[in-house]
Every structure is written in structure tokens, then in C-alpha cells.
Amino acid sequence: VADLQAQLRHSPGGDGLFILTETVTSPTLHDQLAAILARHPRARWHQYQPLDRGHVYEGARLAWGEPLEPCYRYGDARVVVALDADVVGTMPGCVRHARDIADARRSDRAAQMSRLHVAEGTPSLTGALADHRCVVRCGDIDALTQRLAARLGVGAAPPGAPASRARDDTKAGEVAWLDNVANDLTRNRGHAIVIAGDRQPAAVHALVHAINHALDNDRLIELREPVAFETGDGIESLRILVDAMKSGHATTLLILGGNPVYNAPRDLDFAAALGHVRWSAHHALYRDETSVACSWHVAAAHVLEDWGDVRAFDGSVTIQQPCIAPLYDGKSAHEMLSVLLDGNPRPAHDVVRDFWQQRHPQDFDAFWRNALQRGVVDEPSPPARTHVLHAMPATATTERASTGVELVLTADPTLGDGRHANNAWLQELPKPITTLTWDNAALVSPDFAHAHDLANEDLVELRTRDGRALRAPVWIVPGHAGESVTLHLGFGRSRAGSVGNGVGVDAYALFDSATRGVVNDIDVRKVDGRHRLAAAQTHGRMEGRDLVRIVTRDDATRCASGGCEPAHAHDPRMLAEAVWTAVT
């Protein structure tokens, strides 16, 4: 505290003071940050975390003129179309949404069981639940969305593609899926939901809003104030901060949470920029990769040890109450920021209580007791606003290059972006679909593995066009898109702790500010060596029964007519004739 105060005395008006946080959803924390910027008008606040909802907010801005948080009533939908959106697995509100979708699909609870259509490249829990699943690369979802919109009379098909059908090189299975989805949506106007995943570009989200609006689905989608208090581009905000650090303008840097030295885009080189900052402090649970590069590390209080508040995915607010007595002398983010406001740290309980007392001065004690007892702050909902959809451009999205192999960098199902890497229980928990534990792997399709002569646990080198590369073991996943590789983030830590250090490969080595998790035209090359992977259950073990795992309609039709190639005589898909006969 004394050292920080000394720095502030040499920073008139907060000149040179920069604060870096992750996405802020705490009303009290946001109020403190606003008060700091008012008291120190030359100070700057930046936000960054590697996987955020920036595309969702920007897509809403394109469609409605302002960033908004769409909240979906899946329980009332007869049809749900998920475009690279793991609604029940990893997206915000997934626990609530999984319950709603499950209820809508129970014949004893719903007048008509809902149907779920999914288009995705990496198999997910939502895809496993789908009635109709289309396997398509992540980078091709934008073109798929345009074709769906064209069938529904919204927007326009991609250049050169007639509105009535997909372009010439579109797979027959994709055409059938699009026709089926378009017919289902048309028959259920006003009772359907179309949703795009967080990593899809903003233009895709805008087009999805237009589709829902054209189908009168607005009553199932409530547009609310964003859960995040600042909805700007996090990577661009970080870029501005890095420039200030390199130029010497940022002399005092306070980092609340996060781990940018580990997970910032590699092309920004945050670690090198941090070396130019005269004074820096990192507030975090662990003395991690960022902490060791800062002047100070301040041990953070665990979320179960301290007071706070937070907004949920639907905008509701809860007062965060400590569940256990503090194990160590950790400090909360509220205490850290109170030093900039009051000169000395104030207890988090007092900071949070004072904030809410300002908002509810009348009979505050009754309000406070009620909020703690119910777990949810009882505040009136903001008045409903009428939103007018902006006109969509003739081609709402831009097709990504469809040649080459794409690399999808996504959050690990249990470790997230890497913040839980030192939790042994989460490392041990099998991942959905793959059942892998204690490792990440390059997930590929059976066809891709066959074309590149790959088997499970073989090592491959993944190299980008600008020369960055890493090596990872292979894991074959039936249902994965061809010409696509998925690699989970959050591994390869060097300062996670005794549990998480050195586990897996650091996929952030290929994460940059331009690609934002979907890297086009990577080179995949098999290299010598193997890496043992621990899986709770494997797809290869079928007790001697080599069953068909995945088959396309084209494969089935070709084999039924005797058109299977001799080179594939021992391929399990040769059994497609029997499967096709049984189905028809």
C-alpha cells in the first residue's frame, strides 16, 4: 500500500496509472472503477480475457444499434437451431438451458417435443443431443448461415450461390440439413430459436438476429442490458495498453485477476511490454506467469472466502457471501481498489454494503437481509424497450477461406482458459465426448487421420503461416469435421502450481489477435514419437465388434450400389450397405 501510494504521488491526475481487469460483471467493482477514473481522470482502465462475448455484443450492435444480451426461452421453443453453439455444455447459462431443453423434449412435460438441429465442427454435448447434426467446419458456419437465411428470405446467399440451393461444391448432406432446418423453421414461426456460438464473427450473430426477427421468434428472445459492464473489443483494448507500456506512458500498472503473460495473443508480446513498466502489481490466487513478471504479487482471497456481488447470465444480481473463514491473508479486488480511492484498504463487506445502501437508502436493513436470505437482489426489472432491427447488408458475412486446414482453439471443458489448471479434480475429470484426462490433444476426424496416416497418440506438428509451431498428440474423434483440427486451451502452464505445471501443450502459442481462436491454413505434419494419453473410455475398444461409427448419406448410397473403392475394402464404412438397407 505504501509503495502504491508513493507511485500515485508522482502521477498527477492519475497520469501513467493503468488498470487491467478481466470482464467485469460485479456492480460494486464497476462502481469502484468508475469512481477511480473520476478521481484520477488521466488514469485508464482496460479489460481483457482470451475468450469473451465480444462478438455477441458487436453482433447485437450491428442488428439493433446497441450492444445487447440475448436471453433465450428454450423451454417454450419447438425448434432450436444451434450454429457452432454448445448451448447445454459450455455457453453462459448452460445449466439452466440444459434443463429447459430437456424439459421441452420430454413427451410427458411438453405438448410437442422440441427438435434440435446442430451444425458444428467439433463434437459437443449439444451436438450429441441433436436430432439432426450437420458436420461443418467452424470457419464455414458463416456461409452456412447465409444459405439458411437465403432459404428463409433473409439477406442474400454468398456470391455465386443461388438462393434456392447451396453452391455447387456444398456437400449433399449439408444441402439436406439446410432444407430440413428451413422447412422446420418455416412450419414453426414464432416458436423457434436460432443461436450462434460465441466464437462466430459478429456478422453471423447479426444475421441470426435477422433470421429470428423475420420468423417472429422475438417473444422467445429477450434482449437485455449486457451482463458485462464494458462491451468493447477486449483484444483491441489490450493492444492499446501494450502500446502504452512499450512507449513508457504506462508507469504504474495494476492487474486485477487474469494471466495475460500466459494467455495474451502472442503477437502482442505482453511479457516484453511488461518489462517497460516501472511499477506493476498482480492480484491473483496464484503466483503465476504474470505475477513473477510484476513488481508485486498480492495474494487474492478465494471467491468462497470473501464478500462481493456478481451478475448472472440473465442479468440477475446476487450478493456473494463468504462460505468459509479465510484460510490465508488474501485480499479481495474491492480492497485493492479501495486503496486508490481511500488511501487504505477497506473490508470488502463494507464496500459492497455501502454500494447497495446508496442504491436503496430507504429501509436498507430490510433490503440487505432479504438479499442475503433469498440469494438474489430484489430489484425491479428495467422497462421493456422497443428495438428496431437494422437493415442487413446484401451479404451480411464474409466467407472465410475454405481451402487448407483450420485450427480451432477453444476453452477446455474443465480447465476453461487455464485458470483451473492447478485443480487436480478438474484435471482428472474426463472431458465430454473424448473422455481424455490430464492432457489436451489435437482432435481430428477419422477421414483426416486416414489421409495423414495418423493414429491415436501419434505426434503432429501444427505450424501457422507466420512460422509459429507446436507439437501435440493426436486423438481421433468420430463426428469431427474434416480438414479441421481442434486443440483445447489452458494447458502447458509453467507457473500454475504443483498440479498444473507441465501438463499438456500450450495452445496459446498459436493464439494471436487476428485469428482469435480460428486459425486458417495451418500445416499439419506427422513427426516421430508418440505421447501416451489417458482416456476413461476409448472409441477403439469395441470388444471385437468393428461397428460403423460415422457414415454419410453419399457413402451409404455408393456402397449400396457396389461403388466402394477396393482401397477401402477393410474400412468400417464398407458395412454402410447393411446400415443403409436397415434404415430404408
If you had to describe this structure to a student in words, what would you say it looks like?
- This protein is of the alpha/beta class.
- Helix content is 29%, strand content 18%.
- The chain contains 18 helices and 21 strands.
- It has helices at residues 2-9, 27-39, 54-64, 94-104, 125-129, 141-151, 172-187, 202-214, 234-247, 260-263, 270-274, 333-342, 348-359, 364-374, 424-428, 446-451, 553-560, 576-583, and strands at 17-21, 44-47, 69-72, 79-83, 115-120, 132-135, 192-196, 221-224, 252-256, 279-284, 296-299, 308-311, 317-320, 405-410, 436-437, 442-444, 458-463, 469-476, 484-488, 518-530, 534-535.
- The protein has a six-stranded mixed β-sheet.
- The radius of gyration is 26 Å and the shape is globular.
- The model is unreliable at 156-169, 394-402, 566-570 and 580-584 (pLDDT under 50).
- The main sheet orders its strands as 16-18-17-20-14-19
Q: For this entry, what is the oligomeric state of its chains? A: single chain
Taken as a percent bin, the fraction of beta residues is 15-25%
State the separation between the terminal residues, measured CA to CA. 75 Å
What best-fitting shape do the alpha-carbon axes yield?
globular
Q: What is the CA-atom radius of gyration, in angstroms?
A: 26 Å
Roughly what is the average pLDDT, rounded to an integer?
Answer: 86
The largest pleated sheet is described as: 6 strands, mixed
Regions with little confidence, pLDDT below 50 for 5+ residues: 156-169, 394-402, 566-570, 580-584
Residues in helices, as a percent range: 25-40%
- How many individual β-strands? 21
